[in-house]
């Protein structure tokens, strides 16, 4: 089965993004096998007709809708979450439930994806490391809408130029962190080191930072690695879910404790 894709955006400042996205979807050797057509407004300029007379029929004949807006990217796909599943389940670790297992297997064996079912987690990590808010998923009218915020959103309060510089600094810092974490984790118990192997280099570096500085905050770790506090908190959440660390005591005067959180212990977060 091949899919018809509709890229929605009429702003002139997004013209290059529309064209580049279309070119990528059609020229990629593997994606091209599953994409029948990609529609952008430059294909059919509404010079003599009302825009709705051209674009609405195209939209109605679309399998996947991708929206480019001033504050966000949107991806809308017809369908529903599996029965009994919620949006919270969508963001937590869960078993892979692809709509088309054969296509998923092809992408996996071609190394376009590293782990089946890890796509959403990869997106969240990339957004957190770029200083962007967590993406949102909304399910309505038998449609799943996945929104990724742009670098110029009000939530981040940063310009594209400034954010780009911060990302470059983050990348450089992360490279140094990767080397450091591989050399200094020997003092961490083997039982914890084994579990850390499944986490990203950034998450492992944050873990090591709190191991060495147990009374420091997410803000301190953010300054250490050139990340945003929200980016650090994202990795902390993953480490907590892996029973690798938890926080005890008040937010400002507490400390980090490593390993599983004792059940029923007061003050643990």
Give keywords.
single chain, Heat Shock Protein 90, 2 domains, 16% strand, disordered C terminus
Summarize the structure.
This protein is of the alpha/beta class and 269 residues long.
Task: Write structural notes for this entry.
By secondary structure, this protein is an alpha/beta fold. It folds into 2 domains: 147 residues, Heat Shock Protein 90; 99 residues, Arc Repressor Mutant, subunit A (Orthogonal Bundle). The chain is built from 10 helices and 8 strands. The strands form 2 sheets. A 6-stranded mixed sheet has the order 2-1-3-4-6-5, covered by helices on one side. A two-stranded antiparallel sheet has the order 7-8. β5 and β6 form a beta hairpin. The protein starts with a strand and ends in an 11-residue tail after the last strand.
Detail the topology: elements first, then pairings.
Blueprint: E1 3-8, H1 15-27, E2 35-39, H2 51-60, E3 64-68, E4 72-78, H3 87-91, H4 101-109, H5 119-129, E5 136-140, E6 143-149, H6 160-184, H7 190-196, H8 201-212, H9 218-225, H10 229-241, E7 245-248, E8 255-258
Parallel strand pairs: 1-2, 1-3
Antiparallel strand pairs: 3-4, 4-6, 5-6, 7-8
Helix pairs in contact: 5-10, 6-8, 8-10, 9-10
């Amino acid at each position: 089965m091949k899919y018809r894709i509709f890229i929605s955006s009429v702003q002139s400042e997004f013209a290059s993004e529309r064209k580049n996205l279309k070119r990528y979807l059609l020229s990629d050797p593997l994606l091209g096998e599953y994409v029948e057509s990609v529609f952008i407004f430059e294909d059919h300029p509404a010079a003599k007709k009302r825009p709705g007379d051209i674009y609405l029929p195209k939209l109605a004949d679309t399998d996947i809708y991708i929206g480019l807006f001033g504050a966000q990217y949107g991806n809308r796909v017809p369908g529903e979450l599996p029965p009994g599943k919620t949006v919270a389940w969508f963001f937590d670790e869960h078993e892979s439930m692809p709509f088309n297992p054969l296509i998923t297997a092809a992408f996996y064996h071609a190394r376009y994806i590293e782990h089946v079912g890890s796509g959403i987690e990869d997106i969240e990590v990339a957004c957190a490391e770029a200083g962007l808010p967590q993406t949102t998923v909304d399910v309505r009218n038998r449609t799943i809408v996945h929104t990724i915020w742009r670098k110029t959103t009000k939530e981040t309060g940063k310009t594209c130029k400034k954010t780009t510089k911060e990302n470059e600094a983050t990348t450089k810092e992360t490279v140094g962190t990767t080397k450091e974490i591989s050399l200094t984790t020997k003092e961490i118990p083997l039982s914890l080191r084994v579990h850390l192997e499944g986490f990203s280099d950034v998450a492992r570096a944050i873990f090591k930072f709190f191991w060495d500085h147990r009374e420091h905050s997410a803000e301190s770790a953010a300054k250490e690695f050139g990340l945003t506090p929200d980016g650090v908190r994202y990795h902390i959440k993953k480490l907590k879910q892996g029973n690798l660390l938890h926080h005890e005591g008040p937010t400002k005067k507490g400390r980090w404790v490593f390993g599983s959180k004792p059940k029923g212990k007061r003050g643990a977060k």
